[in-house]
TrEMBL record:
InterPro entries: DNA-bd_dom_put_sf (IPR009061), MerR-type_HTH_dom (IPR000551), MerR_fam (IPR047057). PANTHER family: MERR-FAMILY TRANSCRIPTIONAL REGULATOR (PTHR30204:SF69), REDOX-CYCLING DRUG-SENSING TRANSCRIPTIONAL ACTIVATOR SOXR (PTHR30204). It comes from the Bacteria. Residues 1-68 form the HTH merR-type domain. The lineage of its organism: Bacteria, Bacillati, Actinomycetota, Actinomycetes, Streptosporangiales. It comes from Nonomuraea coxensis DSM 45129. PROSITE patterns: HTH_MERR_1, HTH_MERR_2. CDD domains: HTH_MerR-like_sg3. This is HTH-type transcriptional regulator HmrR. Keywords: DNA-binding, Repressor, Transcription, Transcription regulation. The keyword Transcription applies. SUPFAM superfamilies: Putative DNA-binding domain.
Length: 121
């Protein structure tokens, strides 16, 4: 299938599909005329990429883990036990938890400033 077909099948723009290719997440076959030819499996790959991005993973980590996920019989994404996968997921979870903690600290500081501003107009 061509890039337009994949875009329609996944709801992802052609531009974003090209970006996924640049990041090494998709590897379409290049035809002699330069057109990209995608396989049916790329529809699932794009779904997996979107789910992993929604989980907060950067594309560099997704590139390493994408081959470790597949769909179960119900069409849900599941992870296989690939070497290093748990380490990557734990690191990313820690990174996200640290970010949440920093944001909560910032939020508390802003709340203090707002409270102070309201008490001393």
């Amino acid at each position: 299938m061509r890039i337009g077909d994949l875009a329609r099948a996944t709801g992802v723009s052609k531009r974003l599909l090209r970006y996924y290719e640049e990041q090494g997440l998709l590897r379409p076959v290049r035809l002699p005329n330069g057109y990209r030819e995608y396989a049916e499996a790329d529809v699932a790959a794009v779904r997996h990429i979107r789910a992993l991005l929604a989980a907060g993973l950067p594309t560099a980590v997704i590139a390493r883990l994408l081959s470790c996920v597949h769909d179960d019989e119900g069409g849900r994404m599941v992870a296989a036990a690939c070497p290093g996968m748990l380490g990557h997921l734990r690191r990313e979870r820690r990174r996200i938890a640290d970010t949440i903690e920093r944001l909560q600290t910032s939020q508390r500081a802003l709340d203090t400033l707002l409270t102070s501003a309201l008490q001393h107009p």
